Amino acid sequence: MTANGWLQILFFSACVLLVARPLGIYLVKVYDGSLAWLRPVERLVYRVCGVDEHEDQHWTRYAAAMLLFSVASMLLTYIVLRLQHVLPLNPQGLPPVGDRQAFETSASFTTNTNWQSYVGEQVMSYFSQMTQLAFHNFASAAVGVAVAVAFVRGIARRGSEAKGRIGNFWVDLVRGTLYVFLPGCLVLSMLFVQQGMIQNFKPYLEVTTLEGAKQTIAMGPVASQEIIKQLGTNGGGFFNANAAHPFENPTPWTNFWSMFTIFMIPSALTYLLGRMVGRQRHGWAVWAAMFVLFFGGVTTAYWAEARGNPIHAAHGLDLSATAVNPGGNMEGKEVRFGVANSALYATVTTDASCGAVNSLHDSFTPLGGLVPMVNMQLGEVVFGGVGAGLYGILVMVVLTVFIAGLMVGRTPEYLGKKIQAREVQMAMLYALVFPAAILTMTAISSVAKPGLAGLNNSGPHGLSEILYAFSSTAANNGSAFAGLTGTTYYYNTLLGLNTLIGRFAMIVPMIALAGFLAEKKPAPESVGTFPVTTPLFVVLLVSVIVIVSALTFFPALSLGPLVEHLLMGSGVTFR
């Protein structure tokens, strides 16, 4: 580890902190309707779509609208992918996407997962990239933030006035798209273009290399796709090499902005939480819990990768960092980003449900690869995907308050609302669906012939590849260890289903929890009320998140990256 590496990590952390308040204030104004600079456009959208913007929806109606929108848009994407060979903006003449691949991709992009088991520049036409995949990058991100804001409304509202109503899904969706994602992408995409990211509709170029060989250089509208994949924490990539490709991530500044835009909105949403519930210190406490988990993860990943692989050292490689040698484990990493920025990027992208990568996670050391895997298994609550991170950690807050209440033998209260049986049931359903999907499908794939047929590695690393794939899709992350062949009929089916479970089987109980909280009458605080603004609350919240994950996934992690780390120390490898 170097001083330069730590300075870059600390600079990034400071920027994430500084953006929380100003952007948080802006988000509050967006969702309370006080911004009016795009009001004519907003009203036009409501009129064309037949939306009553003044309707305050009950949580059941809010959830139904969200599901209806998701199903309809997923079906449209499936149809377009199957017909892309007869649609415009296909200068390469790419064929239709296969049926099961089209299903997995449609499900993946609808759920903000963006898992890609295909080579982007060889499978997707410009039309498919721009009208379908980019559309879902905007829409799924706007849905996530809308649901998070609805959850906060459920906490902030009182039973006599709300009666289970948590806002209007269609209004939240439109405002998030018009006031947050479209203007943000318009400005930041220009920054990416200025830094050298390509943006065109040219056919792919055939060039002759210095050695005389022929090479195809892929072109396309990259900058406009890249900014929304980062700002909307979607992940995926225009090119197969993702953010390691020089056209997707040409400079150190695009690398920084790529990471920063992933955390911008999740960081600001904690300020929105504090402002909307009238407890700003609670919002900062939630931010602090997220930051503790983030910093612990990046420290571990950086240490593991800077320490290097003893197997490499045994073969005579110099692992020490000097002025002319980056040191550490550089396998699978871009020289221009190095160990520090690779570890930071891997941590950021898996803390949030983004999935963009600038290095090959499969080539990380076992402990370095453990960090992104655990980040996803925590439930993407560490500055998680736009919206998803906030409502995920708020479910953990409810569980934390419930446990604190049990400790003192009192009915738990959260911001003046008693947490009772049905609230805990919804929180536990949310918490249990996630590991059940991951561990069940991992177990099946570890013994089924079609599951094992996709592995490129045996032993604990092979198990890690399967576990990572199902963790990534259930967490709606989309990054991959890349040692698993995911283009098979078997994995296209299971991973596609896993993305749907990880999104909708968790989001519906969460919306129900928001509605239940909105129905509750306020309860005055007493000496037995557990404070949710103190360092003790931060410690307890972090502990609950870590323990829930550790108890659930520790046996599987022990058989994968942990045992591989022990074997690596003895010089044994299964690759």
Description:
- By secondary structure, the chain is mainly alpha-helical.
- The protein has a domain of 182 residues.
- Helix 15 packs across helix 20 and helix 18 runs antiparallel to helix 20.
- The longest helix has 35 residues.
- The protein is globular.
- The mean pLDDT is 89.
Oligomer: single chain
Enumerate the strands of the largest sheet in spatial order, edge to edge or round the barrel.
1-2
Helix fraction, binned, reads: 55-70%
Low-confidence stretches: none
Rounded to the nearest angstrom, the radius of gyration is: 23 Å
Distance between the termini: 26 Å
Largest sheet: 2 strands, antiparallel
* Strand content range: under 5%
Number of helices: 20
The total strand number stands at: 6
Order of H and E elements? HHEHHHHHEHEEHHHHHHHEEHHHHH
Shape by Cα distribution:
globular
The pLDDT mean sits at: 89
Helix-strand makeup class: mainly alpha
How do the strands and helices of this protein lay out in sequence?
Layout: H1 3-31, H2 39-49, E1 57-58, H3 59-82, H4 99-110, H5 120-123, H6 126-156, H7 159-162, E2 165-167, H8 169-194, E3 205-208, E4 214-217, H9 222-231, H10 252-277, H11 280-307, H12 310-314, H13 338-351, H14 366-377, H15 388-408, E5 413-414, E6 417-418, H16 421-447, H17 449-453, H18 459-474, H19 489-519, H20 535-569
Antiparallel strand pairs: 1-2, 3-4, 5-6
Helix pairs in contact: 1-10, 1-13, 3-4, 3-6, 3-19, 4-19, 6-8, 6-10, 6-15, 6-19, 8-9, 9-10, 10-11, 10-13, 11-13, 11-14, 11-20, 13-14, 14-18, 14-20, 15-16, 15-20, 16-18, 16-19, 18-19, 18-20
